[in-house]
Task: structure prediction
Amino acid sequence: MAGPVLAQSGSGGAPELILRNGRITTMDPARPEASAIALRDGVVMAVGGDAEIAKLAGPRTRVVDVEKRRVIPGLTDSHMHIIRGGLNFNMELRWDGVRSLGAALQMLKDQAARTPAPQWVRVVGGWNEFQFDEKRMPTLAELNAAAPDTPVFVLNLYNMAFLNRAALRAVGYTKDTPQPAGAIIERDARGDPTGLLLAEPNAFILYNTLNLGPKLDPEQQLNSTLHFMREENRLGVTSVGDAGGGFQNYPDDYGIIDRLAKEGRLTVRIAYNLFPQKAKQELADFQRWAKTGRPGDGSDFYKLNGAGEMLAFSAADFEDFLVPRPEMPAAMESDLEGVVRFLAGNGWPWRMHATYDETVSRALDVFEKVHRDHPIDQLGWFFDHCETVTPRNLERIRKLGGGIAVQNRMSMQGEYFIRRYGLKATAETPPVKRMLEMGLPVSLGTDATRVNSYNPWQALYWLVSGRTIGGTVLYPEERRLERIAALRLMTADGAWFSRETGKKGVLKAGAFGDLAVLDRDFLTVPEDQIQDITSVLTVVAGKPVHGSGAYASLAPPLPPAMPDWSPVRRYGGYQARKSSTSAMSDAERRYQYAAMCGCASQCGVHGHDHTAVASAASDAAAAQAFWGALGCSCYV
Result:
């Protein structure tokens, strides 16, 4: 406490950047709070009080007054799909954060008018019906009315997708299209597809269909990735664990991120895992990749982290709580053992997707068997998800040296889980506090972008409040986390999962110079506002990568989103919440009123198609005026 602690690399010169007059949460037990921080050569040079850090400044040091704002280590989202998400971000209309279905449909209608053929309007994850004031999903009639000629694909988690008539024509689904295995193409009385696709429980039909749409060209994909990284920076994220994913082929789909890494243009640190690409050929994939690289290869910005999240296709369950838990095939253990035995024998850590305790238990049988021949307790392997894991299996994980990366999928699917399994079962789904009490390594992520929103503050809000995005209470107070404990899971504790403990997620001398200056204080802001936090200044490797307001000039500008019809140009990404109609435009209000239809039978004036009629309504001052103008008596 007598003075700042200097990093060895920074002891010979002045810092490049000093932040002063802050409330800095360092996550360093030796000095948990400070008011100033100095950064040099990409790392933290020193933390301390304003006066002591000011003495380090030189003539070229940039000194920034953060005006008593909360400063935290840059957030680590330990499980998301930033590489795949970056390639597609500029094509996607994000409903993340939108709190009115009417407003969401207006966004879709406007975007359809801007989108040229043969491109689609894609709403790909990050939302659910419970976030909307109307508490319902869009109807196919509403999608067809909003976009009669432009293909529209709307994905709801990995449960279902909605295709308008134009999208059905684009993908070629007709009366003659056979039903896919493990999924349903809904059909009308004539046998024609309606546009609703259901995972029962296999989600492959959903992303197989999405994959049929047009792609961006390479330069547009590069631009898209830059914009997605900047969006992550805007939310305070400086590091991610990329968990691979379906239709993310290695090395073909890594060309853009490789190029940005080589050019020094990444603004998010990425530790990526390799995901096998074809069922029954998983071992061959890992054997081939092991000849070309090893975990840890790369740089502090972009490195190979290991295998997963898929290890064997037969060992992957599905997180669709609208349907019963899937029974894993008998071949699961034999398929998994060959892969795990190879990985353990070659020193490769892995991450494994497992939603249900039954899947975790069978996987642990394999891991324990392999451990007897090739010890795995020092590898740094971990499970992803583990929503229903039991105390018995948590103890087995602990004994094998494993960890658990949890995500806030229950904030999106909690209502579904309650409906199927009841409130009592929900109280520890997943049992995050129990994991911590047992001393397990635990990190927090989002599983963005298709299953969940990429907003990390939704994940932190979920752990602190115990609520879904729609406000449903999931967990009793004693099972929720204190704010600092939740934050630790996305900062210091997240570093274990990329083998960077002490270097990442902590602000101390010698650690990565990654931090976020928040627009409101996470530790004191009213609980409901946690999910609305953004960063006003984000620094990665000592350099500003995002700034807003008074700090906007500190970060380099981004080129405009490409192509020129990109939804990102008009809407950006995550939408600031608007729950009150007083904050809406006239068009948004018209659509909100129309979406409130509670008809038991169709109205004699305009059937159920209120949203289609809403675009012609002129008086949007109040719901009463809207419905009165139409002469409709079915509003409830």
